[in-house]
Design a protein that fits this description.
By secondary structure, the chain is mainly alpha-helical. Helices cover 82% and strands 0% of the residues. It is built from 18 helices and no strands. It is globular.
Length: 397
């Protein structure tokens, strides 16, 4: 080999070594980054759901006391602190109207947290395991439900409903963790808009996608809220269970939800996002008779576990799926706002169930609502786009 050849080989080896070191350093940074972002998103969503389901568990007690009938990092920190303050104030509400106003304000913080936390976590996650990590992230929701059930079991019988809302001030502490440990997404840094005008222009370019996300999430949220929100009331009115039994059955069902979200999220990495959502929803239709019409307590619990395993299994795929079909520069806003618009569209499902239960029964009201919701969710999923495993860095603004 000539002297020039030797020099060239040495340069090539040096360059290869430098690139390898750079890749290893980058991988280590991504691993650390996605873990902290995932943890922050999970805890934020868990504490959101914790508060939301405190109202679900305490609905009858609150109505009775107020004599009502039973019918990007910075933004993430702000949302956490805001809804923590509103949460504590909810426990001090002197009347029903004040309580309703505070809950409406709480929704602003809750709505802001999910979109920002999701985009932050998914942009940091490795593409090959994005579905699995998505399942973990989204299971903050049933984890919060489980936490609310356990607090209801041990706190409500002794102290009533108000102290439960004081516990909701905990997310303010999470904001400190976000400030100190969570890094901004590199994708967001490279593609963020410089002004509101630029942001609006990009959003206008993707208005069809926004409408699809809102309708897609409306279908999925009909299934989640249709099977969860009135379930404690169903156990009380139809099965005549007391507060402790209702809370324990609900808590057990959330164990199924936690497993389902991670399981289907992992399967979606291999078999695709839409396919696994549809599979989970189709199987859930077959579980409806056991879930709503079981003749024994054991069957009731099995039905509840199976239903939440499947419903939250489908929901576990959502963070990855929505993040992948959304453009880089408006991912946090588009995913979060579209998700919450879906929640708004589907929010009347609880009222519909309550009205139907007056005329038929809670079992038939819950079963009919679940069937229609699942069919709508299947149609919405089947007709939408998919970018399974998309590399965010390759997207244009």
């Amino acid at each position: 080999m000539t002297a020039n050849g030797v020099a060239r080989a040495e340069r090539d080896n040096s360059m290869t070594k430098a690139i390898s070191e750079l890749e290893l350093e980058s991988t280590a940074e991504i691993t650390t980054g996605h873990r902290t972002a995932l943890l922050a998103g999970f805890l934020g969503w868990m504490l959101d759901a914790f508060d939301f389901f405190l109202v679900v568990f305490c609905l009858t007690a609150i109505a009775r006391e107020f004599h009502q009938t039973d019918r990007a990092r910075g933004p993430l920190m702000l949302a956490l602190v805001f809804y923590s303050v509103i949460e504590v104030l909810s426990g001090l509400a002197p009347n029903y109207m004040t309580f309703l106003v505070l809950r409406a304000l709480f929704g602003i913080g809750m709505g802001g947290e999910w979109g920002v936390g999701t985009s932050l976590a998914m942009e940091a996650a490795p593409a090959k395991s994005r579905g699995f990590l998505s399942g973990i992230l989204q299971q903050g929701y049933p984890a919060g439900y489980l936490l609310a059930a356990l607090c209801y079991i041990y706190v409500f019988p002794r102290f009533g409903w108000r102290p439960l809302f004081f516990l909701g001030g905990l997310p303010a502490l999470l904001a400190l963790f976000v400030r100190m440990r969570v890094r901004e997404s590199d994708v967001w840094k490279k593609t963020r808009q410089d002004s509101w005008k630029d942001l609006i222009q990009v959003l206008a370019m993707h208005w069809k996608l926004f409408i699809y996300i809102a309708l897609f999430m409306a279908g999925l949220q009909l299934t989640t809220h249709g099977t969860q929100d009135m379930y404690p009331t169903f156990l009380e009115r139809y099965w005549h269970y007391g507060p402790t039994e209702r809370a324990w059955i609900t808590a057990i069902s959330m164990a199924g939800a936690l497993i389902g979200g991670i399981f289907f999220g992992m399967l979606s990495d291999r078999w695709g996002r839409r396919r696994m959502i549809i599979v989970a929803m189709c199987v859930a239709i077959g579980v409806i008779p056991l879930w709503a019409f079981s003749s024994s307590k054991v069957g009731l619990i099995l039905g509840a576990v199976a239903m939440q395993f499947l419903i939250q299994g489908a929901m576990g795929i959502v963070p990855a799926h929505l993040s992948e079909i959304s453009p880089n520069s408006v991912r946090g806003f588009l995913v979060g706002f579209g998700y919450q618009c879906g929640v708004l569209i589907s929010s009347s499902v609880v009222y519909v169930e309550a009205i139907l239960a007056v005329h038929i029964s809670y079992a038939w009201a819950m079963a009919g609502t679940a069937l229609i919701s699942l069919l709508l969710a299947i149609i919405g999923t089947a007709t939408g786009p998919e970018r399974h495993g998309a590399a965010f860095k390759s997207y244009a603004k």
